[in-house]
Every structure is written in structure tokens, then in C-alpha cells.
Amino acid sequence: MPSHPRPTVRRRRLGAELKRLREKAGVKMEEAAERIGGDKPKISRQENGRQGVSKLEIEALLALYGVSDERLRTALTTLAREGRRKGWWAQYSDILPGGFQEGLSIESDAVRILTFQPMLVPGLVQTAEYATEVIQSADKGSTEEQIASYIKVRSSRQEAFGRDNPPQFLCLLDEAVLHREVGGPAVMAAQLDKILEINNPPKLTIQVVPFAQGWHAGADGAFNIYSYPDPMDLDVVSLEHLDGVLYLEEDESVERYQLAFDELRAAALTTKQSMGLVSSVQRKFAERK
Predict the structure, then answer these.
(1) Domain extent at residue 142
(2) pLDDT grade, residue 83 (50/70/90)?
(3) Which of 6, 13, 144, 285 is the most buried (most CB within 10 A)?
(4) Stretch 189-207: mean pLDDT, rounded?
């Protein structure tokens, strides 16, 4: 059986809308497949975002579904075209796992990113030195060349904050992240100093969930929530585990994690209090350099 690429954000959006339009028009998958000279599995793959849709196929399906709104037709045609566009990370496809590439696609299109991290500073705000230590520990078989490429990927991800319309980034850190010594006191001092430097609410906000909170809503581990601007967009939750990353899009799952994030933020120190704590821990690491 041939393999099909993992769904990108754009393909997911396009597929979800095509499915909605087909069901609204009362058209069966077999009828849609016949219209584009395919089969039912092809329509299923397209609606799940796992296969691209050509311009001719889009036009044929929209005609079958009775879609006359030119703005919607143009938007869907654009989505189909952009779904075939390669991201900046394509140059690193030989070293990046497929799941991580999917994550970059999800991240790059988001207008808001909510992150909870109980163990490490997230990649989007890591220094190169901190990232190097994390990568070396996670993959002890990596060569210097591979590590350098991974660092470039992290650096490219962080460039999103320098765009004209950067994503809103709200990061909640368990207090343990501040104290967990990654790479030694000099690396930690520099990393915490960067957190102090880049914290800039409301666009880039970092808050700390203190030890005093005890057991909290994030006790099960790290997660991210990605949101998008278009009504057709589906919010996505990503969960990290030993075998890779799991992505959730079902409304109930997304709402559950959104609630958990809201509870964590309510338990967190204010931004000012958080930066005070970060500054205090940073000074202790700096004294040990």
C-alpha cells in the first residue's frame, strides 16, 4: 500500500470544509469519487487531509456540491495550492522525523500558541546552548552536524516572533523548570536571562506555576494548544511522549486541555511575580558560574 503524507494544517482545514460541504449537499462519497475519477478511499483521504486536492478536483467537487460563493471557492482553491507548498523546514527533512515536521507545520500557521511545560524550557524560547544540551541528552547518537542542524531549526522557529504579525505565545512553566540544571550554571543563567529579556505581555507571556500549588492540572505532562484565525480552522492539541507526538483535534479533547490550561494559569504567579522568581533563580545560577 502506498503511504500518504501526514496531514498539514492547510490540508486538514481544506478536508474538513470539503466534508462539511459534501454532507450539507447530501452527496455520498461514492458520487464525489466518481465526479473526480477516483474512488471512495481517495475522497476519505482528501477529507482527512492526508491527500492533496488539485485545482480541477476542487472545481469539480464544488460544482457537485452546488457551491456558488466565489469568495469561498477562491479560499478553498488557495488552501489547496498552499497545501502543496513546502515549508521552510523541508531542507531538514532528511534529519527530522515526520511527526516533528507535522508539528512545525501546525506551529508555523498558528496565531496563538498556549504551552505548558513541567520539565524543560520549550524550544521556542531556548538558547542555543540550552537546546544543545537537551538535544544531546535526548539523542546521544546525534553527530555534531546533526545537532547543528537541529539548532538551526530551533532558531528558525523562533524567528516567528520577529514577524510583522507574530503569534501570541503564552507559556506556563512549572517552577521545577527553573531549578532543573541543564548544561550547568552558566547555561542556566543565560537561559533564565533570556526568559527575562523576551517576556513581553500580552504577545509573549511567560508565567510560573509555583511549587506551593502542589498537585495541579498539568501533572500528566507537557502539552501545547494551537489556534488559527480562519472559521474553517481546527484547534490542535499536541502531547509529547517517548515515541513521538500525539495530535488531538476532537472538540471534547481540545476543550479538556483548554480547561486544564485555564486552571494552570489561574494557579500560576502573575507575570510580575513570575519574573521576580525567575530573576531570583537566575542570580543564584550566575553566582555559581
Answers:
(1) 90-287
(2) low
(3) 13
(4) 97
Strand order of the sheet with strand 244-248?
A: 204-209, 168-174, 112-117, 223-227, 236-241, 244-248
Q: Per 3-state DSSP, what percentage of the chain is helix, strand, and coil (rounded to 5)?
A: 55, 10, 30
Give the helix/strand (H/E) hosting 47: helix 40-47
**Inter-residue contact 23 to 16 (CB < 8 Å):** no
Cell numbers for 219, please give them. 501533572
Residue 53 sits in the same domain as residue 113: no
- φ, ψ for residue 140 (rounded to 5)? -65, -15
Cα separation, 159 vs 149, whole angstroms: 15
Long-range contacts for 134-142 (Cβ within 8 Å, ≥24 apart)? Answer: 134/182
CATH number at residue 113: 3.30.870
Residue 54 belongs to domain with CATH number: 1.10.260.40
In this predicted structure, the answer to whether residue 5 has a pLDDT above a threshold of 60 is no
Average pLDDT over residues 211-234: 81
Q: Which residue has the cell 537541529?
A: 150
